[in-house]
């Protein structure tokens, strides 16, 4: 079975790397013959610092599906069209927005020097902070502040791009049209119902909708409608995730070994 993991708030917390406890649980999955994917809102550049090196050559889906890396190399990128890019730049200026914009590797940041998001941006100094016009392509826009966040969100959605609101941080996450984590998985020949998903936020909805089984970490109102189960956040969350992974691993390994198919777990 394929197992697909979001990162922040799902298997790593407060910007810190995935701990040894969960890394070992992931290795046990692979020892049972399962395949592990990672799918994050982070660009590939910022996924690497929170994953141990032994997972850097795994399939990494970044930018909510706009970037795919395999075997340590960026393999696929979906940017905004020139027209969408121009329109978004106008909206950002019109609404006096501050933002983090990602190209395929480098980034542009105009937010406050003490904004919490900045601690997670290129902590390993793998990229360059460049001017907006220096990007050959743009794959993701994270809007941090605005003089009218609601109006900006509405106008951005009218461009046909994908807009997610992260309520806890009060930021807008904007991706190119038809880009999401499930679409990136499908492009890698992963079939609908061919994976188990772990996630925690609105950008995991399509991932959950097309999964065989889904586990929500914490609670998100929209995502909860598509979750098969939820693990509440708490001091022992990593223990419970590891325990759940071991049980799901045994279950799906037994099913695949028997060559049977079940509708529910």
From TrEMBL:
Keyword Membrane included in the entry's annotation: no
Keyword Hydrolase: yes
SUPFAM superfamilies, alphabetized: HAD-like
Annotated InterPro entries: HAD-like_sf, HAD-SF_hydro_IIB, HAD_sf
Gene Ontology MF term list: hydrolase activity
Record key words, sorted: Hydrolase
Source superkingdom: Bacteria
PANTHER family in alphabetical order: 5-AMINO-6-(5-PHOSPHO-D-RIBITYLAMINO)URACIL PHOSPHATASE YBJI-RELATED (PTHR10000:SF53), PHOSPHOSERINE PHOSPHATASE (PTHR10000)
Protein name: HAD-IIB family hydrolase
